[in-house]
C-alpha cells in the first residue's frame, strides 16, 4: 500500500492574516513539501497540472525532475496530466526523460482537468474531451511500446516512422493511473488497458465514488486482467490534523470557511460528515481513512491533500509530521493485515520490469519443453 500527498498548487490568500504567497514562494513551498514527504516516510508526491491562475504547476515534469535530484525513494507522480490538451508525443518524451533522471521512480495520472478554457488555449474543443482522451492515450501507449510508429488520427497531424526519445527506462513505460471525478468512460478506459483508476474522492459523497470504482472493477475483470478485487485503485483524501481535535477544528475553520472551492457553502461539520475530509486528531484521521476500505474494497494508493486553502508552509510541514509519524504507520499495519494475499501491491518500476522480463521468457520456456 502506498501513502502520499498530492497538491493542486493553488496560490491562495491566508484568511487569518491576509498574506498571499508569490508564485515563486508557492513553487518553492511545493518542493519543500515533497522533500518533507520523503523525510517523514511517505511513498508518493503528486503534483497537478494547471495553466491558469491561481495555480502554479504548469510544468509538472520540470518540478518533479528537480525533486528527483533531491530524493532517493519518493515516487514522483502527477495528480493530473492533461491528456486532452497536451500532445501525446510530448508526454511520452517528458515522462521517459523523467524516468531516467529518477531511476524509475515515476508514474502519472491522466485526466481532462477541470478548467474549460484550457481547451481553446491549446487549440482543442472541450466538446471533444472524451474522444481526445481515448485517441491521445492510444497514441501515447504506442509511442512508449513501439520503437517506430506510423499513426494517423483525428486530432493531430500524422506520424510517419516516428521514434519517441528517449525510450522508456528498461523498455518499461511509466505506470498510468486514469483520474476521474464523474466520467464512467474514463473508468472504462482504465479497465480496458488494465491500468490504475484514481478517484479524486474529495468533494463528492462516498456513494458517487462507489459507483465509479465498482464499475471500473467490474470492467477490469471483464477484460481479463484479473478478479475485480485485484483492480488497481487509488483514492484521494483530505485532512487537517492536530494532537487535539478541538485545536484542529478551531485552527482550520477560517481556512475552510474561505477556501475557493468549498468556502461559503456547507458548514465544516456538514462537509466532514458527507465527504472524506477529516479535521481532528490523528486517531480520527485513522478511523475515517479505514472506512475507505469498507466502502471501496482493498486498494493500492492513498494520497492526501494537505497544502490547500492558503495554509502556510510551516503549518503544512507540521501536518506532514503528524501524518508520517502518527497516522500512516497505523494505516499501513491495519490495511496490510486486512488485505488478502491475492490483492496486488501498487505497481512500481521494478515490478513492471520483472513482469516484462517474465513475459519475454515465456516463449523460450515453452520451446525448451
The unreliable regions are: 365-369
Tally of DSSP β-strands: 12
Strand content: 5-15%
> Class by helix and strand content?
alpha/beta
State the shape. globular
Topology order in helix (H) and strand (E) letters: EHEHEEHEHHEEEHEHEHHEHEHH
Question: Sheet bearing the most strands, described?
Answer: 10 strands, parallel
Radius of gyration: 20 Å
Helical region count? 12
Distance between the termini: 38 Å
Percentage of helical residues? 40-55%
Average pLDDT score: 94
Summarize the structure.
By secondary structure, the chain is α/β, with parallel strands linked by helices. It is built from twelve helices and twelve strands. The strands form two sheets. Strands 1, 2, 3, 4, 5, 8, 9, 10, 11 and 12 form a ten-stranded parallel β-sheet that branches. A two-stranded antiparallel sheet has the order 6-7.
Amino acid at each position: 500500500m502506498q501513502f502520499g500527498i498530492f497538491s493542486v498548487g493553488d496560490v491562495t490568500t491566508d484568511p487569518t492574516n491576509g498574506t498571499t504567497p508569490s508564485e515563486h514562494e508557492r513553487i518553492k513551498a511545493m518542493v519543500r513539501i515533497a522533500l518533507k514527504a520523503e523525510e517523514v516516510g511517505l511513498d508518493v508526491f503528486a503534483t497537478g497540472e494547471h495553466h491558469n491562475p491561481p495555480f502554479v504547476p504548469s510544468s509538472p515534469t520540470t518540478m518533479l525532475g528537480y525533486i528527483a535530484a533531491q530524493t532517493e525513494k519518493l515516487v514522483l507522480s502527477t495528480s493530473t496530466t492533461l491528456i486532452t490538451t497536451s500532445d501525446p508525443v510530448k508526454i511520452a518524451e517528458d515522462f521517459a526523460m523523467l524516468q531516467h533522471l529518477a531511476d524509475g521512480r515515476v508514474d502519472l495520472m491522466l485526466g481532462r482537468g477541470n478548467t474549460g478554457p484550457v481547451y481553446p488555449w491549446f487549440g482543442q474543443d472541450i466538446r471533444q474531451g472524451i474522444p481526445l482522451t481515448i485517441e491521445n492515450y492510444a497514441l501515447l501507449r504506442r509511442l512508449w511500446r513501439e520503437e517506430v510508429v506510423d499513426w494517423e488520427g483525428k486530432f493531430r497531424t500524422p506520424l510517419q516512422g516516428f521514434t519517441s526519445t528517449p525510450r522508456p527506462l528498461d523498455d518499461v513505460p511509466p505506470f498510468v493511473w486514469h483520474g476521474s471525478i464523474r466520467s464512467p468512460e474514463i473508468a472504462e478506459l482504465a479497465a480496458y488497458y488494465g491500468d490504475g483508476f484514481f478517484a479524486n474522492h474529495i468533494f463528492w459523497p462516498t456513494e458517487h465514488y462507489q459507483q465509479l470504482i465498482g464499475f471500473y472493477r467490474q470492467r477490469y475483470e471483464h477484460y481479463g486482467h484479473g478478479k475485480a478485487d485485484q483492480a488497481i485503485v487509488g483514492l484521494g483524501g483530505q485532512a487537517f490534523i492536530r494532537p487535539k481535535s478541538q485545536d484542529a477544528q478551531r485552527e482550520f475553520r477560517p481556512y475552510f470557511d474561505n477556501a475557493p472551492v468549498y468556502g461559503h457553502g456547507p458548514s465544516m461539520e456538514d462537509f466532514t460528515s458527507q465527504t472524506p475530509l477529516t479535521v481532528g486528531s490523528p486517531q480520527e484521521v485513522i478511523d475515517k481513512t479505514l472506512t475507505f476500505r469498507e466502502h471501496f474494497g482493498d486498494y493500492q494508493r492513498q494520497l492526501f491533500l494537505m497544502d490547500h486553502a492558503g495554509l502556510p508552509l510551516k503549518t503544512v510541514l507540521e501536518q506532514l509530521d503528524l501524518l508520517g509519524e502518527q497516522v500512516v504507520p497505523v494505516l499501513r499495519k491495519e490495511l496490510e493485515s486486512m488485505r488478502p494475499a491475492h490483492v496486488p501491491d501498487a505497481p512500481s518500476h521494478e515490478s513492471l520490469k520483472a513482469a516484462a522480463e517474465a513475459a519475454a521468457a515465456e516463449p523460450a520456456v515453452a520451446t525448451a519443453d
